[in-house]
Structures are given as C-alpha cells and as structure tokens.
Design a protein that fits this description.
Helices cover 69% and strands 0% of the residues. With 72 residues, it is mostly helical. The protein has one domain. The longest helix is centred in the middle third of the chain and has 27 residues. The chain is rod-shaped, with a radius of gyration of 19 Å. InterPro entries: DUF896.
Length: 72
C-alpha cells in the first residue's frame, strides 16, 4: 500500500507541473481506483466485526448490518 500511495503522490506532483502524459493520466486513475477499492474492502471488514449492544447486554445490531455480516 505504501508503494501505491508513493506512486499516486508522484503522479500528483507531475500533474501540478503539467507533465502528465495521457498514459500517466490513465495510470493515475487506475492507482486511485485501487486505493479506493482497498479502503472500501477495509471498511467492509470493519463493519462486519461491529456489534451493537444495549446497556443490558442485548444485541441490538441493525438488521442490514446482520445481513452484511452473513455475506462473504
């Protein structure tokens, strides 16, 4: 992930200098999409581990979240 971020930043710097070729613009889009997808996957993983309980210890997790947890 660090290499991905490093490359994205390199391309961003080139863009500021108006030195991006069409190929580099396409690479930048692809890398950004990979970065976004990685974050979505991470967020989904975190959501699947959530459980809400009330002060009495009863599970009050939202039904949508329970369905999400059942998905692979």
């Amino acid at each position: 992930m660090e290499d991905l971020i490093k490359r994205i930043n390199e391309l961003a710097a080139l863009k500021k200098e108006d030195k991006l070729t069409p190929e580099l613009v396409e690479e930048q889009k692809e890398l950004r999409n990979k970065y976004i997808e990685a974050h979505k996957k991470n967020l989904l993983s975190q959501l699947k581990r959530l459980k809400f309980v009330d002060k009495d210890g009863n599970d009050i997790t939202n039904e949508k979240l329970k369905i999400l947890k059942e998905q692979k």
